[in-house]
Automatic annotation (TrEMBL):
Residues 320-450 form the Ricin B lectin domain. The keyword rRNA-binding does not apply. This is Polypeptide N-acetylgalactosaminyltransferase. GO terms for cellular component: Golgi membrane. It comes from Phodopus roborovskii (Roborovski's desert hamster). Its EC number is 2.4.1.-. Catalyzes the initial reaction in O-linked oligosaccharide biosynthesis, the transfer of an N-acetyl-D-galactosamine residue to a serine or threonine residue on the protein receptor. Has activity toward Muc5Ac and EA2 peptide substrates. GO terms for biological process: protein O-linked glycosylation.
Length: 463
């Protein structure tokens, strides 16, 4: 049998590919590789657009091993994938979105891991194809673990040192997959019950399959040597039927898989608590029959690093309420500002009975050491942000990575910005709030939070 050598780590255009060690991989023979490809099923949702009708069939006629399946009515991503999977005959099922371009030698490194352990679900690394000009690049941070916050938004967290491999091109464990790009042993997929067929159209299915595979005796890996480009769209180009909601899907996943941790979701999304998740009896039965472990096990053994970034119970804030300037007696105010707009200095409105005070002059110095509009229970995802030692202080999307959104509220009442080594200052005449060279004797650099938690502040200032 002729050995075929495949260079795994040659990527078309990934930016850091120069620094990536090259690896080689041996496959049984060429025919086997062809078989793998041939057995991938293609699936399409019900016809809506012209080019998915005859033009698609004409094009695919060039590839005799490709079968096009069509649903009778609109089924959505989840059930359509199940239809494709049920028609597949190969040993391995690979799911990709339609707006993907597989990179060089993307498949063998996925199959290799499944061949070694059939209960491993493997995900390629998803690179970014720009939706405007199709340029190709790695995601910010490249290799990261898949995670979620307790509103069930997908998040990426760094690989902790304990899980980092000597060779960064080695596969690494990921708690949840990003979306729907993965390969799985076909029989194992069906042993797991496929996707929950009660999930509608789109959303939550990546959590369902991820929790299920980990908790029910399998595992999941991201494979740095397998690269697939994906177009991240600006908007969703289709309509979701009335009555279908992402919330209902997420509630279903939480009810079936998350045990007592579902409560953390309901605390943040109270509207989910009484939402109907439909009939989940079959899903719960499956969980029992597969002898699946608890969500607590998942959080302790697999996603143990997640709470450091997204704690189920929010740690206490260091300070909150209005932020009053000592020199001017005026308060920081968002002026209901939009993203990127500068903070302003305005007359303090606390106690003046103005209904709007809540949304404009209340801030929280959070456990992430950033400052956000809103009270501690309802912070917005906007943060005090400064780019230099002379720039205005603006509200920007919170990145939760400290950096230019890290602040220190010091004993001398200054708001110190470690990255620029400067302090928050203001000017009474034009109401500006800006960064300036620290001068602890300047009263315009001293700020008073309405409430402080000295224990938390002391801990922050020790860091
Ligand atoms: Mn996609």
């Amino acid at each position: 049998m002729r050995q075929r050598q495949v260079d795994l780590c040659e990527f078309k255009a990934s930016q850091d590919s120069n620094s990536r060690p090259k690896k080689t991989f041996f496959l049984g023979d060429e025919q086997k590789l062809k078989d793998w490809h041939d057995k991938e099923a293609i699936r399409r949702d019900a016809q809506r657009v012209e080019h998915l009708k005859k033009p698609l069939e004409d094009y695919m006629a060039l590839f005799p091993s490709v079968r096009i399946l069509r649903t009778k009515k609109r089924e959505g991503l989840i059930r359509t994938r199940m239809l494709g999977a049920s028609a597949a005959i190969g040993d391995v099922i690979t799911f990709l979105d339609s707006h993907c371009e597989a990179n060089v030698n993307w498949l063998p490194p996925l199959l290799d891991r499944i061949a070694r352990n059939r209960k491993t679900i493997v995900c390629p690394m998803i690179d970014v194809i720009d939706h405007d000009d199709f340029r190709y690049e790695t995601q910010a941070g490249d290799a990261m673990r898949g995670a979620f916050d307790w509103e069930m938004y997908y998040k990426r967290i760094p690989i902790p040192p304990e899980l980092q491999k000597a060779d960064p091109s080695d596969p690494f464990e990921s708690p949840v997959m990003a979306g729907g790009l993965f390969a799985v042993d076909r029989k194992w997929f069906w042993e797991l019950g496929g996707y929950d067929p009660g999930l509608e159209i789109w959303g939550g299915e990546q959590y369902e399959i991820s929790f299920k595979v980990w908790m029910c005796g399998g595992r999941m890996e991201d494979i740095p040597c397998s690269r697939v480009g994906h177009i991240y769209r600006k908007y969703v180009p289709y309509k979701v039927p009335a009555g279908v909601s992402l919330a209902r899907n997420l509630k279903r996943v939480a009810e079936v898989w998350m045990d007592e941790y579902a409560e953390y979701i309901y605390q943040r999304r109270p509207e989910y608590r009484h939402l109907s998740s439909g009939d989940v009896v079959a899903q719960k039965k499956l969980r029992v029959s597969l002898n699946c472990k608890s969500f607590k096990w998942f959080m302790t053994k697999i996603a143990w690093d997640l709470p450091k970034f997204y704690p189920p119970v929010e740690p206490p804030a260091a300070a909150w309420g209005e932020i009053r300037n000592v020199g001017t007696g005026l308060c920081t105010d968002t002026k209901l500002g939009t993203l990127g707009s500068p903070l302003r200095l305005e007359t303090c409105i606390r106690g003046r009975g103005e209904a709007a005070w809540n949304s404009m002059q209340v801030f929280t110095f959070t456990w992430k050491e950033d400052i956000r509009p809103g009270d501690p229970q309802h912070t917005k995802k906007l943060c005090f942000d400064a780019v230099s030692h002379t720039s205005p202080v603006t509200l920007y999307d919170c990145h939760s990575m400290k950096g230019n959104q890290l602040w220190k509220y010091r004993k001398d009442k200054t708001l110190y910005h470690p990255v620029s080594g400067s302090c928050m200052d203001c000017s009474e005449s034009d109401h500006r709030i800006f960064m300036n060279t620290c001068n602890p004797s300047s009263l315009t650099q001293q700020w008073l939070f309405e409430h402080t938690n000295s224990t938390v502040l002391e801990k922050f200032n020790r860091n």
